[in-house]
Amino acid sequence: MVGPCGHRRAQCVARGPAQGRRGGPADVRTRPMSREAATPGTRALPRIAAGVDAALASIDAELDWLLALSPLGTDALWDEFDASGRTRVSPLRYAEPALDLDATRRRLLALPMDDIESPLLAGVLSEKQRELDRTIELVRLRGTDGFIAASIDLFGGVEAGLLELANRILAEVAASDPLPADSGVDEVVAAVEAEVAWYRTQAPDFGLEITIDADIGSLMMVSHGRLYLDAELRLPRARVQPLVQHEVGTHVVTRYNGARQPLRQLAVGLAHYDPLQEGLGVLAEYLCGYLPGERLRILAARVLAADMAIHDAGIPAIFACLHEDHGFATDDAFDVAVRALRGGGLTKDAVYLRGLRDLLDDLRGGGAFEPLFAGKFALSHRVVLQQLAEAGWVAPPALLPRYTAADDFAQALAHCRTLTVDALYHAHPPRTPAQEVPA
To answer: Which intervals of the chain form a coiled coil (predicted)?
Structure first.
């Protein structure tokens, strides 16, 4: 199949032995991050709270739900779908979860939440416990009729206002200038390694594991601090740095900052952290210099596809809607349709546009930008984070994304504070290559 940036994603041979992956061929390049270091000006959590915090972080790390819901063999799936006249598709296949979900749930629910010394910490940690319980249920229900309800419970559905915004974007935002897919995985790895080297000049313990895999169902993604790259990815060179800033400058940097907080949940994510993370990631693409119109259209298409999945549409119907009614290329339409039907109907894809909308609303209202990188949390946690900071359990971010060091960053951010989501894109690539970031 053709990937979502217009590249040809071929089935490929292994680039190296698999290490710590779910059975697919992989090449792992490792730059380990050191153990968490205490941040000056903070204090340790009370004993029981610290134990619960550590246990929740451990369960979160074991429960790699994103990989558990990543379909296998999507290239062969496209070949089959195309050969059928684009009317039929086999059930999605997944790797078997290595985790004993029932035993994990028992461990989770046995934690001494009622004994946590601070009501403030008890509230934050109990909220995370409930989210992990719902996540276990989501993975358990994979491929069953109950999956969509579990997904809505965890990630939300598609509210009327979000669907209206998505349809407006699809109707009004045009694709940007077409660009050749002239960069491959080696160039992306080089850009990521240069990014890591830049951060290590400020924080010598900053690191990142990179896994190159032939069958991840996505061009690139970060899961539990590891960056996964499609072994055959191709994308325009102007999109390399924006995507690196999305994955490393947002997801990896906030994990690094969160790991230096006394509250370990800020590294793995407080409950409902996904919308803000993805909103920051997409905003990073814009602030780095190139967020094309088709990227915004893809986010809108994901909302439309999630809504269709909620209403029992299958991959062929979602594909036809996106390809025939909204003009998406076959590769993009199929990719979005498959993503929407992961597990039986995964509504997480709606959080990208929702998170971006809510982040811009917050910034337009004067919300501070830099504190959003202290860890992984939701916008609704702003007040709680301030209370935790006053108690000595949260500190300002140790690192900020590299693009914030650009000379014109303050001006660019001020401009973003005036924009609505449907205006947040570039019609043309930058004259100065987007891959040039502050040295």
So the answer is: none
* Stretch among 7-11, 52-56, 325-329 having the lowest mean pLDDT: 7-11
Residue with tokens 């906030």: 254
At residue 139, what is the residue type?
A: V
**242 neighbors 292 (Cβ within 8 angstroms):** no
Rounded-to-10 torsion of CA 43, 49, 54, 60 = -120
Contact between 155 and 66 under an 8 Å Cβ cutoff? The reply is: no
Burial of 87 (0-12, 13-18, 19+ CB in 10 A): exposed
Are 348 and 151 in contact by the 8 Å Cβ rule? The answer is yes
CB 276 within 8 A of CB 310: no
Whether residue 301 contacts residue 336, with contact meaning beta carbons closer than 8 Å, is answered with: yes
Angstrom distance (rounded) from CA 255 to CA 326? 37
CA atoms within 13 A on the CB side of 429: 16
Residues 6 or more apart in contact with residue 266 via CB below 8 angstroms: 257, 258, 259, 374, 375, 376, 377, 394
Q: Which amino acid is at 335?
A: D
Lowest mean per-residue pLDDT among 155-164, 211-220, 290-299, 420-429:
211-220
- Whole-number mean pLDDT of the chain? 88
Token pair recorded at residue 318: 């979602």
**What is the pTM for the complete model shown?**
0.88
